[in-house]
Structures are given as structure tokens and as C-alpha cells.
From TrEMBL, chain A:
CDD domains: UBCc_UBE2N
Nucleotidyltransferase as UniProt keyword: no
Organism domain of life: Eukaryota
Residue ranges annotated for the UBC core domain, each copy included: 2-148
Active site: C86
Keywords of the record: ATP-binding, Nucleotide-binding, Transferase, Ubl conjugation pathway
InterPro entries: UBC, UBQ-conjugating_AS, UBQ-conjugating_enzyme/RWD
Pfam families documented for this protein: UQ_con (PF00179)
Name of this protein: Ubiquitin-conjugating enzyme E2
GO MF annotations in UniProt: ATP binding; transferase activity
Homology family: Belongs to the ubiquitin-conjugating enzyme family.
From TrEMBL, chain B:
Protein name in the entry: Ubiquitin-conjugating enzyme E2
Species assigned in the record: Chloropicon roscoffensis
Domain of life: Eukaryota
Pfam family, one: UQ_con
Domain (UBC core): residue spans on this chain: 5-120
Classification lineage: Eukaryota, Viridiplantae, Chlorophyta, Chloropicophyceae, Chloropicales
Length: 151, 120
């Protein structure tokens, strides 16, 4: 099946002009499946970490949102233990005017601004609300343990 | 059809179960909630008397091209269940596995043809 022109264009642009701190490249076997890396934003608890994600453009993209999840473990109230991400533009706020690039920039922004009032992982969110400093320390520990190895 | 990667395919199947969209006489989920590779699953099937039978499933890196391994734990007595509890490759859905099948469809077939003993 031919790849839609829109996906080809987006892929070319992602490779030619990558967004700062983000890389995304399609897999050789499946042009709809991308290996993604996001650098932990500075001044966030994830600073210094390199996060691997996987992204898939479903059959009905861009009418449906891309599917994305973290492969690197991360301590964040809007990301669960399987790496699933709670982000409105990946669900009901998706619009075909958005792109792979905007999705990845939004995920990068989510790392800078965790939102414990709309949690995916209730335990993490509770710690974030009750003792933010200790939650941030745990997030920094996880960054060191899981996101800095071999990089 | 676009080729859905194994991980997103299994996450979709998990989401159906989490949202309670599967048949009420079966249930399934991950054995460990942080199993990022989505390999080890647990399931249960309800029989006519309302008794639950527990199962374990293992989805290899080749899923859904290859079927999961399924074990009754504890074992139940059936010609398609081996000594260690594993559902044998003689069971039709495992023998004639197709990538469009799913954990849910496999559990339903096991419920119908092994637990309830309906003819295949």
C-alpha cells in the first residue's frame, strides 16, 4: 500500500529540520512506525535524560491521532508504568491540522509541566500533590537510573 | 491494512479489557502492571456454574503473527490441555492461528470449546 503524501512530507521534514531536543526516524520495515528520542528539558527533573519513545501512524492518520508511548521508564504523573501518555491532543483534542512534530513538542512540554490534577498514574500523582519536592527527587533518581545509561 | 506494530496492537487489546469492553464471562490483563514488553498476561474464564478458571498467557515477540502460549493454572482435564496445563497446538484456533485473532477471541474459543465443551 502506497504511503500517503502527507506522511512522506512530514517524514522528510522531521529528518531535514528536526525540532531541538527531538529526533524521529521511521523504521526500515514500517514507514508508519517511528523510533523517537526526546531529551529531558533543562530545568525539569528529567534534565540530562534521553528518553526513547515509539510512535505509530494508524491507518486513518491524520483523521486519527498518532499512537505514542515512552519505552524508557519515567516517573511522571501523566505517564503510566507502560509508558502510555495522558495528553489531550492524543485523544479528544486531536485535529488533522496537528502533526508528528507538534505531538512530540507537546510531549516535550509535558515533561516540563507535569499536571498532577489530570493523572494517569494515580500513585505518582498523589505523591506529586502531597509532597512535590520528594516527587521531583524521585523523578530525578529515575532519570539517573533509567534515562542516562549507555548515552 | 497497515501493519500495526506488536506493542500498539497489544496496548489496544489491553485497553479493551481495562474499559470493560470484553465479554463478561472472560477477563484478562497484564500479570505485572509494569511489563513494558507486554509478554505475561493473566486471564480468567467463567464456566456454567459461575466458577472461574485461571489462565496464564505468554505473547512472544512474534505476536500476533504467532499465537500466544496459553496455560490453565491450575490445569483442567481436557484432551487439548497438556500435562503442564498448556493448551495444545491440536486446539483449532492455535493450529490455524491468524494475525486477525486476538487474546479475547482465543479466550472465547477456549471457553466455548474446552471449558463449556461445545463442539468445534
Amino acid at each position: 500500500m502506497a504511503l500517503p503524501k502527507r506522511i512522506i512530507k512530514e517524514t522528510q521534514r522531521l529528518l531535514a529540520e528536526p525540532a531541538p531536543g527531538i529526533s524521529a526516524s521511521p523504521s526500515e520495515e514500517n514507514a508508519r512506525y517511528f523510533n523517537v528520542m526526546i531529551i529531558g528539558p533543562s530545568t525539569s527533573p528529567y534534565e540530562g535524560g534521553v528518553y526513547k519513545l515509539e510512535l505509530y501512524l494508524p491507518e486513518d492518520y491524520p483523521m486519527a491521532a498518532p499512537k505514542v508511548r515512552f519505552l524508557t521508564k519515567i516517573y511522571h504523573p501523566n505517564i503510566d508504568k507502560l509508558g502510555r501518555i495522558c495528553l489531550d491532543i492524543l485523544k479528544d483534542k486531536w485535529s488533522p491540522a496537528l502533526q508528528i512534530r507538534t505531538v512530540l513538542l507537546s510531549i516535550q512540554a509535558l515533561l516540563s509541566s507535569p499536571n498532577p490534577d489530570d493523572p494517569l498514574d494515580e500513585n505518582v500523582a498523589r505523591q506529586w500533590r502531597e509532597d512535590e519536592n520528594s516527587a521531583i527527587n524521585t523523578a530525578k533518581d529515575w532519570t539517573r537510573i533509567y534515562a542516562m545509561q549507555d548515552n | 491494512m497497515a501493519d500495526v506494530p506488536r506493542s500498539f496492537r497489544l496496548l489496544e487489546e489491553l485497553e479493551r479489557a481495562e474499559k470493560g469492553q470484553v465479554d463478561g464471562t472472560i477477563s484478562y490483563g497484564l500479570d505485572q502492571e509494569d511489563d513494558v514488553n507486554l509478554v505475561h498476561w493473566v486471564a480468567s474464564i467463567m464456566d456454567r456454574n459461575g466458577d472461574l478458571h485461571s489462565l496464564k498467557l505468554e505473547c512472544s515477540p512474534e505476536y500476533p503473527q504467532r499465537p500466544p502460549k496459553v496455560y490453565f493454572s491450575p490445569r483442567i482435564e481436557n484432551k487439548h490441555v497438556m500435562a503442564d496445563g498448556q493448551v495444545s497446538t491440536s486446539f483449532w484456533m492455535i493450529k490455524d492461528w491468524n494475525a486477525s485473532y486476538s487474546i479475547e477471541k482465543l479466550l472465547k474459543a477456549i471457553r466455548d470449546n474446552i471449558v463449556l465443551g461445545r463442539r468445534m
